[in-house]
Amino acid sequence: MNTFFCADHSRKAGEDIIGSASNYQTYILIECPQPWLMETFNSKWVPENLRALVKEVKQAKLPITFLLIANNISHKVDSTTLLIYHRKEGLGSGYCLQEFQLQNIELVAGVVKKWLWSGTPKCEVETTATRDILVCTHGSHDMCCAKYGNPFYHQATTTVCNLGLDHIRIWKSSHFGGHRFAPTAIDLPEGRYYGALSLESFKSILTHTGDITCLNKVYRGWGILPTAIQVLERELMLEVGWDWFNYKVAGRIIEPSLDEKTIQAELTVEKPDCSLYTYLATLVKYDTKDLHLKGSCHAKQDSVFTKYAVTSLSVAEKNLLTCST
Fold it and tell me: In 3D, which of 114, 124, 167, 175 has the Cα closest to residue 146?
């Protein structure tokens, strides 16, 4: 009997992975040794107070996601790293980081509660890291994250070391969606999602060099944007080139159709020289790209994954302003 791997199935079907980046206002990343259970926060090293907080935030439907992270020495260290990435509304290029080094994981819930209430816990620390890249290795949640995620994590850490990129940290991460795109990653503070990664495409992402068309196959979308209009951002990115990564962006859906077949979208872009562009686009449900696939290795039946295409694009206005802060 052949074992079914959802990532193999997705690639064989030629699925376009754009539009699959999750949209959150806040990422709360907690260092926790593996192994992790399929239900992440029922894992052995997760304390009850943290488990209760995650449940409380989820029930309140706050735009916050909690993820467990680890690296090759997490099980040996005598402290717990807590990373909170938060995004403000309006034009932006990603998230702002607050980092905490705590004596143990039991203290995480208290610090997060203080952050939620006042936003200013006193135990924040300075860091030399400017990027945190999360690679899903949560094999108990989906086999593809073990099959593809674990080897890629080790390759990624070696690549970052060989390139001398000391400011970039690579973390193993618990499940953040899209395991059929394994190996899949989130690049913070930008909040961009990638999948079906190869070492060649990963080097281009790390250095923002090389042929940007490689992102056609590995870019899942920018998590600061609604999923339906992430395809629009990709189109503009491929047109502009790597300079696009220096732009600030805000996007919104102006008007969806009742049947969700057509979407009017707006993307506002600020360049480093403070020039401002507002793009208007029509996105049309691309029926021929709708795929019936199993969303995970253990799925019992197929799911339908809707794809959109940009059918019209115009620049609505262009002016000069004081750069946003």
Answer: 175
DSSP 145: I
Convert the pLDDT of each residue in 58-115 to its tens digit: 999 999 999 999 998 888 888 999 999 999 888 999 999 999 999 999 999 999 999 9
Residue that the structure tokens 């999750």 belong to: 22
CB-count burial class (<10 Å; 0-12, 13-18, 19+) for 28? buried
Residues 30 and 74 sit within 8 Å (Cβ to Cβ): no
Helix and strand numbers, DSSP H then E, in the chain:
8, 16
149 by Cβ neighbours in 10 Å (0-12 / 13-18 / 19+) ranks as buried
At 105 the pLDDT is 96
**What is this structure's pTM?**
0.92
Q: Tokens standing for 178?
A: 């899209």
Q: Which helix (H) or strand (E) holds 112?
A: helix 108-118
